Amino acid sequence: ALAASGTVTLELAMANTPMVVAYRVDAVSAMIARRLVLVRFASLVNLILDKQVVPELLQDDCDAESLSRELRNITQGAGALQIKEFDQLRSSLLAQDNPAALAADQVAALIANQR
User: Fold this and answer.
1) pTM summary value
2) Residue 113 in this model has a pLDDT that exceeds 60
3) More exposed terminus of the chain, fewer Cβ within 10 Å: N or C?
4) What whole-number distance in Å separates Cα of residue 8 and Cα of residue 21?
5) Closest-CA residue to 89 (of 43, 51, 49)
6) Measuring CA to CA, how many Å separate 99 from each of 39, 48, 66, 89, 95?
7) Up-side HSE of residue 10: CA atoms within 13 Å toward CB?
8) Every domain of the chain and the residues it spans
9) Which residues on neighbouring strands pair with residue 3, listed in sequence order?
10) How far apart, in whole angstroms, are the C-alpha atoms of residue 111 and residue 115?
């Protein structure tokens, strides 16, 4: 799947759907975001697992050639590796009474640690 960063990445992970995250904004918004955003990843899956599990193509990296390459990769083996990581994510989130609250807490902790 091709997804924008956001909650859809968690939904796709819960459905065991390999993905590539793509996001591009105008130059001014990108400049502001670079100064304000203090986390390493754009997708919730990568943020919660604290490692790059799904490729993120952001700004200048978000072009047709890169999208094509990464989408091809997930159909040729990389998708199976993502699904293994999604199992870990799902186990972590579903072991809690309130998985949404746990995800929010983990992202908030990552942001707090970056400051």
Assistant:
1) 0.79
2) yes
3) C
4) 10
5) 49
6) 21, 12, 33, 10, 8
7) 18
8) 2-114
9) 21
10) 7
Tokens of 42: 């754009």
pLDDT band for position 14 (cuts 50, 70, 90): very high
pLDDT, tens digit (0-9, with 9 covering 90-100), for 92-101: 888 777 777 7
DSSP category for residue 39: -
> Which helix (H) or strand (E) segment is 58 a member of?
strand 56-58
Q: What's the pLDDT band for 114 if we cut at 50, 70, 90?
A: low
Residues 6+ apart with CB under 8 A from 99: 93
> Higher pLDDT residue, 97 or 56?
56
Residue 17 identity (one-letter amino acid): T
3-state secondary structure of 77: coil
Residue with tokens 């992970």: 13
Write the single-letter amino acid at 82: Q
